[in-house]
Amino acid sequence: MTSAPTISTVGELRASGHVQKHLRQEIRDNLLDALREGRDPWPGLHGFEDTVIPQLERALIAGHDIVLLGERGQGKTRLLRTMVGLLDEWTPVISGSELGEHPYDPITHASQAAAATYGDDLRISWKHRDERYAEKLATPDTSVADLIGDVDPMKVAEGRSLGDPETIHFGLIPRSHRGIVAINELPDLAERIQVAMLNVMEERDIQIRGYVLRLPLDVLVVASANPEDYTNRGRIITPLKDRFGAEIRTHYPTVLEDEVAVIRQEAELVADVPDYLIEVLARFTRNLRESSSVDQRSGVSARFSIAGAETIAAAALHRATVQGEPEAVARVVDLETAVDVLGGKIEFESGEEGREAEVLTHLLRTATAETVRHHFRGIDFGLLVDAIESGAMVTTGEQVTARDFLTGLPVLGESELYDDVCDRLGATTDGARAGAIELALEGLYLARKIGKDTDGSETIYG
């Protein structure tokens, strides 16, 4: 954030050559400047480059209000909040104005009176773009007063008459004048509340309890909704849908790399989680989205894999703390801890009652096997399989340290197998090497080359 300009009066503002821009023109110019200069106006968004983003940019250039439709965890709210970056960093407002009006264009009675009284000496302040974004989670108890406004009984009690426009307490949308107002889960708004938005969306003014009050609001209304909400919890009434200039469908990442990038970006990890484990979680999430056992109308949120990464990182830190390991590194054995706690984030089909854990375990194993094939293709594990078939056993588990695990591996003579496995995954420390070899053992088990027995917190490959 740069420092706010030092200009403090309307006269100084005019002398500086400042030109007023309406909100849509401001957004359009800043977006076109970014595209012209090759800057990315949508940092932190993955997988939308060829689908959602072009539609959104066209809508903003056209000056349309926008509704984003998509299942949970597709990045709708993040996309809405990123629009703030298209506003000017600092914009002038009349000091003390309730709606943050531009000094050249006061719209409330109080600001107009102040402008007439002080002229070029009218005091101005500067508003940062972050303050020009307002967000409201639509809930069934949201009222017209919350969004539009109502008569303020305290102002009436102070002696003002009911017909005085200054008795009005403005709601969220008028207070977002010259800014962006976002309404999350729009269908959850009661239909009568949606009706109150019709004038704001089309005529750009507000009506409060019969007051003759025409405020030419300059706001961009954006909203998010789940497509299922049209028929389940509620719906967007037809006249309001008609007033949105653009309806854009979002989606989950279509390629694995974008799924991994989202997890890496959003997860707050308390321990080292190697890339291949993030890949397993990403594949696991994608398998769930394709499974006939999962209710795809509800979707499988990106928060599922993010929470999974955070869980296995916590398991690694727990083990390192209890066992006195010098470093906390997540391993394959920690993946099961994620399955234990993430099941409640998935909506299963009604016919799968009682099989939830079985479905999750199967799809996690599938994701693990896919990751093993991707990274270890071409490596000959024959010597390791022979050693285990000859009676060698490898013990691991949630509380088995990396050093103990590596010490318990069967000796393979002059073979460089373990080094090859670790090199494929870039594993150099004890924790990373233990995790890499665990992945190989789990792959052999899933390929039915070796056996596995889980007893409490211990897992034995043999």
Report on this structure.
The protein is 43% helix and 12% strand. It has 462 residues and is an alpha/beta fold. The chain has two domains: 10-249, 3-Layer(aba) Sandwich (Rossmann fold), CATH 3.40.50.300; 256-461, no CATH class. The protein has a five-stranded parallel sheet. The relative contact order is 0.09. The mean pLDDT is 90.
Overall pLDDT score: 90
Shape descriptor reads elongated
Q: And the CATH topology of the largest domain?
A: Rossmann fold
In the CATH hierarchy, what is the superfamily of the largest domain?
P-loop containing nucleotide triphosphate hydrolases
Spatial ordering of strands, largest sheet: 4-7-8-1-9
| Helix percentage range | 40-55%
How many strands? 12
User: What is the total domain count?
Assistant: 2
**How would you classify the helix and strand content by structural class?**
alpha/beta
Q: Give the percentage of residues in beta strands.
A: 5-15%
State the end-to-end distance.
59 Å
Q: pLDDT below 50 for ≥5 consecutive residues: which ranges?
A: none
Please report the number of helical segments: 20
